[in-house]
Automatic annotation (TrEMBL):
Domain of life: Bacteria
Protein name (Swiss-Prot/TrEMBL): ABM domain-containing protein
Length: 173
């Protein structure tokens, strides 16, 4: 089910609280750039339509062209980056271009999905790396560091490492 969410043009609902448990469920484990322990934040992304849709899948980029299918317990490092910019279209275009041209070729990069807010212009970037060591190694790459610095200067960002949770069922509800 979660892998079906990330299709360009698909409308989704992004909830910063527990939804119906059938979508992609992410639990915040670590915040970057914010001192102190993370608050309990559960994010759920589910297919939606009409007034229930809050975001649209704008772009999906993967290292090998395979679909982005986050799964519980796959060992990947999953980041969620909430980006609020005065020029949302620039933030999307810049991130997509850098990911296509450079980031997707870095060792350990799995893929990313960019979701654009329908009413707010907020950009959500869900990124997966093979593991935490590959993400740390990316920061040794000069162009990757410049990309991150440019986004931080041009927009407000809230980045966290999330754990992907299983779908909620009667047994684990």
């Amino acid at each position: 089910m979660a892998g079906d969410i990330f299709q360009v043009g698909r409308e989704v609902a992004v909830s910063l609280r527990e939804g119906d448990g059938t979508g992609l469920r992410l639990l915040l484990r670590e915040r970057f750039g914010t001192p102190g322990p993370p608050e309990d934040r559960l994010v759920e992304i589910t297919p939606a339509a009409g007034p229930d849709a809050t975001h649209t899948v704008a772009e999906v980029i993967t290292a090998g062209g395979a679909p982005l299918v986050p799964a519980p317990g796959d060992g990947r490092t999953t980041l969620l980056n909430l980006i609020t910019a005065d020029r949302p279209s620039w933030a999307l275009d810049f991130n997509v271009a850098e990911t296509r041209e450079h980031i997707r070729h870095l060792p350990g990069f799995v893929g990313t999905a960019f979701l654009t807010g329908r009413a707010t212009g907020e950009l959500i970037e869900l990124v997966q790396w093979r593991d935490a060591a590959d993400l740390r190694a990316a920061f040794a790459d000069e162009r990757f560091r410049a990309h991150v610095d440019t986004v931080r200067r041009a927009a407000r960002t809230d980045v966290g490492r999330y754990e992907i949770l299983p779908h909620r069922t009667e047994e684990n509800a």
